[in-house]
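task queued by scheduler; priority normal; single chain, no ligands, no partner chains; default sampling; output format set to structure tokens
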Amino acid sequence: MKLAVLGTGKIVLDLMNIFDQFPIEKKVLLATRHSVEKAEKLAAEHNFDHIYYDYDELLTSDVDTVYVALPNHLHYAFAKKALEANKHVIIEKPITANYRELEELIKIAKEKHLMIIEAVTVHYLPAYLNIKEHLPELGHVRIVSMNYSQYSSRYDAFKAGTILPAFDYHKAGGALMDLNVYNLNFVIGLFGEPKHIGYQANVQKGIDTSGIATLDYGDFKAVCIGAKDCKAPVMSTIEGDEGFVAINTPVNGMQAYHEEDNKGTGRDFTSDVKTHRMYYEFMEFIRMIDEQDYDKMNEMLEISKAVSRTMEKARKEAGIVFDNDHQE
């Protein structure tokens, strides 16, 4: 893989903790002119081959894959340009601001026989894959409850009148897109798309600072809480008529969980190899692209599509409209 990393934000800096471990033949960075010093430091520390400050110039290079790690509202435009330049794309969650954008990107990728992959750590973590494997042990699932409430340092600025991207409807922000997206990926990855989605949100200045999504699967129900304006102990449970699973860490980085049957017999699962949460997904992305594994890509895209549709329905119920929703 020859990879272009777009951005120098928080998620990119997080990835850099393990970036040197990946078998990447060439790596380049796209930065802005106001982040030159930051970009040069990052590139030097992680042996980037080149820094670009012009996206069009980057797209003429020999990179084969572009990792879009920019604010949510920019995902579609930058991914579209990359696909049109015959590059595979890995796009940070949420993959696009709305489902229409995702449909168009998939259409372009299919026409050009390119890969489009959403970076959601949940689906590649050993603990999550183990839950999926042992899910039948719980019997018939009846209730799923997810709570990812994490007070944001940016919320103080928001209350003071400074609107940063995480709380900006112009930039496709909000608690649903930032935190609850992980809960929804967890549930939909296990059980598929719900029959109905409801979203009761605390909306301030046009954006959801927290909210409760209710998912109706017919024979069982799920509730997903995501909050950036308050905090609580993180807890997620899957309750079946023969047992339950309990997770007491955010699911996007889970390394362990507890399972217990109705007789009180329990077991604890802990990942044998504890490493950074983004390691597993990127190793799989590299494999998928290097081996041209379109079957796996399509499997994961089905989850991305279901989550995107579900989140868009949730936003509409709460009256949350992004600028991207008006763009054709």
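post-processing summary
- The chain is about 35% helix and 25% strand.
- Residues 157 and 163 are 7 Å apart (CA to CA).
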